[in-house]
Please model this.
Amino acid sequence: MTTTTLPSATALPRERLAELVDALVAQGWYVGEAFIPAELCAELYQEVAAMADHQALEAAGIGRGPAHALRRDIRGDAIRWLDRESRARRHYLEAMGELQQELNRALFLGLFEYEAHFAHYPPGAFYRKHLDSFRGRANRVVSTVGYLNPDWPADAGGEIVIFDAIDPEREVSRVRPEAGTFACFLSDSVPHEVLPTRLPRASIAGWFRRNASLGGLVDPAH
Ligand code: OGA
Ligand code: MN
Model:
């Protein structure tokens, strides 16, 4: 019997994690191609495509609690929160756990929880420019998006546009939602939007959270 440790199937390569941390520190955002393993993306894509076919997704709203509202003029995707009911979902959540550990180790962010949902944008859908959390109540600290569509055509739209944290009118990146590509940014300071898509567009959007206790109340997960 040998004691060699084999890298786990879900491990995100160390050098890619380091690249991500460096970019977050330097500019507040990161985009990497071929970041999430192709086989994992393929399984997750099958799952969300089946959910879309079986009406197992719900229209996404904006705002939390009593302020929650459906606003097709702002956001047109349909979502389902990620559980651990399939191997692919567990693997994705394990990979995000590795990222959480690395962010805490390298940046002392104190992230303690991760929440994520599948998102499916039907043709014509978009998500207007927004931040994922608001300063002061910022329990969402770092946002992640993993893209799932294989072979996304250059003319199919659906790009995520990322804006500068200091100069929010300045576009700094425009990214095709191609399977394997991974975006990560500071939730309360990096504005971003999803341009109208011409094809059904599938992703997993997620957030690392810190516990925001306000007056003894713990902010609910969702
Ligand atoms: C979000 C979001 C971006 C994307 O769900 O908050 O900004 O590219 N998603 O799917
Ligand atoms: Mn967002």
